[in-house]
Amino acid sequence: MAGAHYVELAVTFHLEASHRLPCAPQDSACRRLHGHSWVIDVHVAGAVDMDSGWLLDYHDIEAAWQPVHDALDHQHLNEVEGLSNPTSELLAIWIWDRLAERLEGLLRITVRETCTARCTYFGPGRGKEEAK
Ligand SMILES: [Zn+2]
Description:
By secondary structure, this protein is α+β, with helices and mostly antiparallel strands. It is built from 3 helices and 5 strands. It has a single domain (6-23, 32-131), classed as 6-pyruvoyl tetrahydropterin synthase/QueD (Tetrahydropterin Synthase, Chain A). The chain has helices spanning 58-72, 88-100, 128-131, and strands at 6-19, 34-47, 75-76, 106-112, 118-121. Bound molecules: zinc ion. Zinc ion binds next to β2.
Protein backbone atom coordinates (compact mmCIF):
# COMPACT_ATOMS: atom_id res chain seq x y z
CA MET A 1 0.00 0.00 0.00
CA ALA A 2 1.62 3.23 -1.14
CA GLY A 3 1.67 6.29 1.08
CA ALA A 4 0.33 6.96 4.53
CA HIS A 5 -3.38 7.08 5.22
CA TYR A 6 -4.41 10.09 7.26
CA VAL A 7 -7.59 10.20 9.32
CA GLU A 8 -9.29 12.47 11.81
CA LEU A 9 -10.90 11.06 14.93
CA ALA A 10 -13.30 12.95 17.16
CA VAL A 11 -14.91 12.31 20.53
CA THR A 12 -17.75 14.41 21.97
CA PHE A 13 -17.81 15.30 25.66
CA HIS A 14 -20.38 17.02 27.88
CA LEU A 15 -20.00 19.47 30.74
CA GLU A 16 -22.49 21.26 32.95
CA ALA A 17 -21.12 24.57 34.19
CA SER A 18 -22.12 28.14 34.92
CA HIS A 19 -20.38 31.33 33.89
CA ARG A 20 -20.81 35.03 33.43
CA LEU A 21 -18.91 37.26 31.03
CA PRO A 22 -17.57 40.30 32.87
CA CYS A 23 -16.23 41.91 29.68
CA ALA A 24 -19.51 41.72 27.75
CA PRO A 25 -21.41 44.97 27.12
CA GLN A 26 -23.36 46.29 30.11
CA ASP A 27 -26.71 45.44 28.54
CA SER A 28 -25.68 41.92 27.44
CA ALA A 29 -27.46 38.95 29.03
CA CYS A 30 -24.05 37.22 29.02
CA ARG A 31 -22.97 39.42 31.94
CA ARG A 32 -25.56 37.74 34.14
CA LEU A 33 -24.89 34.46 35.91
CA HIS A 34 -26.20 31.59 33.81
CA GLY A 35 -25.33 28.02 32.88
CA HIS A 36 -24.80 25.92 29.80
CA SER A 37 -24.76 22.24 28.94
CA TRP A 38 -21.47 22.57 27.12
CA VAL A 39 -20.65 20.11 24.34
CA ILE A 40 -16.99 19.79 23.40
CA ASP A 41 -15.64 17.96 20.35
CA VAL A 42 -12.00 16.94 20.52
CA HIS A 43 -10.43 16.14 17.13
CA VAL A 44 -7.17 14.28 16.62
CA ALA A 45 -5.47 13.67 13.26
CA GLY A 46 -2.65 11.49 12.03
CA ALA A 47 -1.65 8.49 10.00
CA VAL A 48 -3.28 5.12 10.52
CA ASP A 49 -0.96 2.48 11.95
CA MET A 50 -1.61 -0.21 9.37
CA ASP A 51 -0.63 -2.98 11.80
CA SER A 52 -3.13 -2.05 14.51
CA GLY A 53 -5.57 -0.44 12.07
CA TRP A 54 -5.81 2.56 14.44
CA LEU A 55 -4.59 6.10 14.69
CA LEU A 56 -5.09 5.69 18.40
CA ASP A 57 -7.56 4.16 20.82
CA TYR A 58 -10.60 6.40 21.44
CA HIS A 59 -10.00 5.57 25.08
CA ASP A 60 -6.75 7.59 24.90
CA ILE A 61 -8.81 10.68 24.02
CA GLU A 62 -11.23 9.92 26.86
CA ALA A 63 -8.34 9.46 29.31
CA ALA A 64 -6.79 12.79 28.27
CA TRP A 65 -10.17 14.47 28.70
CA GLN A 66 -10.89 13.17 32.22
CA PRO A 67 -8.80 15.75 34.14
CA VAL A 68 -10.46 18.53 32.11
CA HIS A 69 -13.88 17.14 33.02
CA ASP A 70 -12.87 16.90 36.67
CA ALA A 71 -11.72 20.53 36.67
CA LEU A 72 -14.75 22.03 34.90
CA ASP A 73 -17.88 19.92 35.38
CA HIS A 74 -20.47 21.44 37.74
CA GLN A 75 -18.18 24.39 38.43
CA HIS A 76 -18.65 28.12 38.12
CA LEU A 77 -16.10 28.65 35.36
CA ASN A 78 -15.17 32.17 36.47
CA GLU A 79 -13.75 30.62 39.65
CA VAL A 80 -11.50 28.16 37.78
CA GLU A 81 -7.89 29.34 37.61
CA GLY A 82 -7.23 30.91 34.21
CA LEU A 83 -10.92 31.32 33.35
CA SER A 84 -11.88 34.62 34.95
CA ASN A 85 -13.44 35.63 31.59
CA PRO A 86 -14.80 32.26 30.39
CA THR A 87 -15.95 32.98 26.85
CA SER A 88 -16.23 30.00 24.51
CA GLU A 89 -13.04 31.21 22.85
CA LEU A 90 -11.00 31.36 26.04
CA LEU A 91 -12.51 28.10 27.29
CA ALA A 92 -11.43 26.38 24.05
CA ILE A 93 -7.87 27.71 24.51
CA TRP A 94 -7.86 26.66 28.19
CA ILE A 95 -8.96 23.14 27.22
CA TRP A 96 -6.41 22.99 24.39
CA ASP A 97 -3.58 23.90 26.76
CA ARG A 98 -4.48 20.99 29.02
CA LEU A 99 -5.13 18.42 26.28
CA ALA A 100 -2.20 19.21 23.99
CA GLU A 101 0.37 17.97 26.48
CA ARG A 102 -1.47 14.64 26.86
CA LEU A 103 -2.81 14.06 23.37
CA GLU A 104 -0.51 13.70 20.39
CA GLY A 105 -2.03 14.88 17.10
CA LEU A 106 -4.58 17.24 18.67
CA LEU A 107 -6.09 19.02 15.66
CA ARG A 108 -8.95 21.20 16.88
CA ILE A 109 -11.44 21.67 19.66
CA THR A 110 -15.02 22.83 19.20
CA VAL A 111 -16.85 24.26 22.21
CA ARG A 112 -20.61 24.36 21.79
CA GLU A 113 -22.26 26.74 24.21
CA THR A 114 -25.80 26.29 22.88
CA CYS A 115 -27.42 24.14 20.19
CA THR A 116 -26.67 26.82 17.61
CA ALA A 117 -23.50 28.62 18.79
CA ARG A 118 -20.04 27.12 18.80
CA CYS A 119 -16.36 28.09 18.70
CA THR A 120 -13.57 26.08 17.07
CA TYR A 121 -9.93 26.50 18.09
CA PHE A 122 -7.07 25.10 16.00
CA GLY A 123 -4.21 25.62 18.43
CA PRO A 124 -1.72 28.46 18.96
CA GLY A 125 -0.97 30.35 15.76
CA ARG A 126 -3.16 28.06 13.66
CA GLY A 127 -6.54 28.54 11.98
CA LYS A 128 -5.83 31.95 10.51
CA GLU A 129 -6.70 30.68 7.03
CA GLU A 130 -9.91 29.11 8.32
CA ALA A 131 -10.83 32.32 10.16
CA LYS A 132 -10.62 34.55 7.04
ZN1 LIG B 1 -23.05 31.82 28.41
